[in-house]
Each structure stands twice: as structure tokens, then as C-alpha cells.
Amino acid sequence: MSGHVPGRALPRLEPVGRRRPDPAALVLVAHGGRAGSRESGERRRLTYWRMLPFAKDLRRAGPELGVFMLRYRHRGWNGADRDAQRDVEAMLAELRRRHPGVPIVLVGNSMGGRAVLRAAGADGVVSVCALAPRLDGSDPVAQLAGRSVLIAHGDQDRWTDPRQSLAYAVAPRP
What we know:
Helices cover 29% and strands 20% of the residues. The protein has helices spanning 46-61, 83-98, 111-119, 162-170, and strands spanning 12-15, 25-30, 65-71, 104-109, 125-131, 148-152. Strand 2 (25-30), helix 1 (46-61) and strand 3 form a beta-alpha-beta unit. Helix 2 (83-98) crosses helix 3 (111-119). The radius of gyration is 15 Å and the shape is globular. The model is unreliable at 1-7 (pLDDT under 50).
């Protein structure tokens, strides 16, 4: 993988259910994290387990889907490093390598929601779903052009700001 630094962990894809050799579409599920943390993105984190039922439901709902959970290198977004976004982008490249031309759907929660929204402009991505994304008003929207976008956010959320999701959802797109 380009940009790999020896001794640093790599992001990983974990298939959900049995692997499909020729899926009709792919789904990459990105869980939440923290604003800043260099701790590992191990599966033992609650944010990972919180998104696993979504991934399993997607897998059951679409037997022709290839569904994958993302395992981050680091637990945090980490400011200008945007580690979660970079991990999503790296795993999108891997999915395109494994399954050229297959459409990709991105689903993310909290930090993962922000990461999938930012990575939505990648080749092959046809739609993106962000659940309570951790937005801060600085996130671009141009990459969403031509994609189906769903942003869902409860108005009583105490962890991420639903007003940021609304502002992002109604922001003009080119």
C-alpha cells in the first residue's frame, strides 16, 4: 500500500459473512472513533461492535452484496492527518483492485460517517450513508456530486451535533 510506513499498522477489511467471489455491489462499513487518538483501531472497541449489526443486516438483506467492516489503523481522526478518511480511501482502492468495476456503497457512523462523506468522491462509489457524522463545519461537499447521499442524525444526540449534519445536508453542491 502506498504511503505505508514500516512499523505502522495498516487498515484492514473484514468480510461480513461468506465471501462472494463476484458480488453485484460492495458495502464498506466504517465505525466511529475519537477526535484524536493514536491508539490502535482494534475490534475490541465498542464503536466497532456498534456497527457490526448494521453490516450483518446489510449482508442478510442482499445476498449478492460483498459487505466489509473497516478496521482503522488508529482510533482517532487526528486533525489534519484525517487518519479515518485515509483508511477509508485505502480500503476503497483495495476493493476496486479486488473487484474492478463493481459499485461501492459507503456506510459510516460518527467519525466513520465523516470519513465516508469525505471519501465519497472516489471512483466506484455510487452512494454514501452517514449516521450521526462527526462534522465540524469544515467538511467539503463537492465530492458528493452524482452520488446518492443519506445523512441520518437524531436531534437528541449528545456525542455529535445534529445541527452540523443538517447544515452539511443542505449545503449547496456543484
